[in-house]
């Protein structure tokens, strides 16, 4: 009985020493991310590729009954904290600051305009699309052409 108590105490001690208090295993951000919050009829979807402490990619957006276009994504990853800058084809910039709350979920805030501006921070969530690899949901050749037009 004494050995059982010692074994249970040791297991609890080891569990408490995890570097991630959520117990979530950090996985790559590589893949397609889709905004799950927002106005019905709008879309914000992007592909990310994580490399060390940086992440980059491209995406597409659609406004409710309005404009559609593309954007570039660049950011940093520090543990479960993710900071992304989105540069849209009309030169609008948005900043996402959030947390990887699950291996397939980013929760945080999105702010359009300057980081230190007076614009409100919008609460947003992005979910990683299951079984999507870079290029599957959006033809990357088409995206490359769209992004080339963005720079002209």
How would you describe this structure in keywords?
17% helix, alpha+beta, single chain, eight-stranded antiparallel β-barrel, Lipocalin, 2 helices, globular, 152 residues
Explain briefly what this protein structure is.
The protein has helices spanning 2-16, 140-150; strands at 31-35, 43-51, 54-62, 68-78, 81-88, 93-102, 105-112, 122-128. It is of the alpha+beta class and 152 residues long.
Task: Describe the protein's topology.
Layout: H1 2-16, E1 31-35, E2 43-51, E3 54-62, E4 68-78, E5 81-88, E6 93-102, E7 105-112, E8 122-128, H2 140-150
Antiparallel strand pairs: 1-2, 1-8, 2-3, 3-4, 4-5, 5-6, 6-7, 7-8
Structure characterization notes:
By secondary structure, this protein is an alpha+beta fold. It has one domain: Beta Barrel (Lipocalin). It contains 2 helices and 8 strands. Strands 1-2-3-4-5-6-7-8 form an 8-stranded antiparallel β-barrel. It is globular. The C terminus is likely disordered.
Q: Please tell me the total number of domains.
A: 1
Q: How are helices and strands ordered from N to C? A: HEEEEEEEEH
Number of helices: 2
Within CATH, the superfamily carries the name Avidin-like
